[in-house]
């Protein structure tokens, strides 16, 4: 479990989020929504240890992150940013980089490292990409590689910042399926997503960031009843049933 206690964070002297308390339970998909610039990405970076401008406490599996060394924390928490550098290397070489917390800088990969990479490729279905250059893949193909990277990392907590950005509709649904795969592998996913309807469809718990605060909801019905979506976005969120499945629509 990741637990935030009285967490305030931002950049430098600018505080964006104030006195947050939240829990992200193990083996669950936690969706963070909110308007652009409200601090969603800042929160992920702070949890990942990439932003040190914070007060309060962050606990991972009951331990304060300040008492966990960087290498050990890297084995526990994996972070996928929204904007990613695309190196010129093969997919297999790139996935082996996910093993860095275990291999180190100057050591050679061992059998278990190759097994982790191979299993990640098989699970995501990118074995045929292994020798292709990452720069020559389509956006959807590359996104699958990034998810394989997260699996090869073998961290228990996965922080995803806008994983469906820049993808067409079909590929967005493929990404949601991949996130389900991560959960089925026992991972805890904390995900920022721009598309509210996609987020509600996959979330076990929903966190809404607004005016520097965070509100937690156990399901979409709770969120709808709160009217918070209408207050924040000036739109209305409705539940509909399509082919026996619950779906969500937003109307002005």
What's the order of the H and E elements?
A: EEEHEEHEHHHHEHEHEEHHEE
Counting helices, strands and paired strands, the structural category is alpha/beta
CATH class descriptor name: Alpha Beta
Strand percentage lies at 25-35%
Q: How many angstroms does the end-to-end distance come to?
A: 37 Å
Could you estimate the helical fraction of the residues in percent?
A: 25-40%
Low-confidence stretches: none
Largest sheet: 6 strands, mixed
Cα Rg: 18 Å
What fold name stands as the CATH topology? Answer: Rossmann fold
- Number of separate structural domains: 1
| Number of distinct helices | 10
Proper CATH architecture: 3-Layer(aba) Sandwich
Q: How many distinct beta strands?
A: 12
Report on the architecture of this protein.
Helices cover 36% and strands 29% of the residues. The chain is α/β, with parallel strands linked by helices. Helix 5 (111-124) crosses helix 6 (139-153). The longest helix has 16 residues, at 169-184. The chain starts with a strand and ends with a strand. 36% of the residues are buried.
Keywords:
alpha/beta; 4-stranded antiparallel sheet; Rossmann fold; globular; 252 residues; 12 strands
What is this structure, in a nutshell?
This protein has 252 residues and is α/β, with parallel strands linked by helices. The chain has helices at 40-47, 70-76, 91-96, 100-103, 111-124, 139-153, 169-184, 196-202, 220-226, 228-233, and strands spanning 2-11, 14-24, 29-33, 54-60, 63-64, 77-80, 157-161, 188-192, 205-210, 213-217, 236-242, 245-251.
Q: Helices and strands in order, then pairings?
A:
Blueprint: E1 2-11, E2 14-24, E3 29-33, H1 40-47, E4 54-60, E5 63-64, H2 70-76, E6 77-80, H3 91-96, H4 100-103, H5 111-124, H6 139-153, E7 157-161, H7 169-184, E8 188-192, H8 196-202, E9 205-210, E10 213-217, H9 220-226, H10 228-233, E11 236-242, E12 245-251
């Amino acid at each position: 479990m990741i637990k935030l206690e009285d967490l305030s964070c931002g950049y430098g002297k600018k505080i964006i989020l104030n006195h947050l308390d939240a829990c992200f339970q193990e083996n669950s998909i936690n969706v963070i929504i909110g308007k652009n610039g409200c601090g969603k990405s800042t929160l992920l970076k702070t949890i990942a240890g990439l932003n040190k401008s914070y007060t309060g406490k962050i606990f991972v599996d009951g331990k304060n992150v300040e008492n966990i060394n960087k290498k050990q924390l890297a084995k526990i928490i994996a972070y996928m940013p929204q904007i990613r550098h695309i190196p010129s290397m093969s997919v297999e070489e790139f996935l082996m980089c996910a093993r860095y917390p275990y291999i180190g800088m100057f050591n050679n990969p061992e059998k278990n490292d190759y097994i982790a990479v191979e299993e990640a490729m098989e699970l995501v279905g990118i074995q045929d990409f292994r020798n292709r250059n990452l720069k020559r893949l389509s956006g959807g193909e590359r996104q699958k590689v990034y998810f394989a990277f997260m699996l090869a990392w073998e961290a228990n907590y996965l922080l995803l910042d806008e994983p469906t950005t820049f993808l067409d509709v079909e590929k967005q649904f493929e990404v949601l399926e991949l996130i389900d795969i991560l959960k089925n592998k026992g991972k805890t996913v904390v995900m920022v997503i721009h598309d509210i309807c996609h987020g509600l469809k996959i979330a076990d718990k929903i966190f809404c960031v607004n005016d520097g605060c965070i509100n937690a909801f156990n399901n979409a019905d709770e969120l709808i009843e709160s009217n918070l979506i209408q207050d924040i976005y000036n739109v209305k969120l409705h539940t509909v049933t399509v082919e026996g499945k619950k779906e969500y629509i937003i109307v002005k």
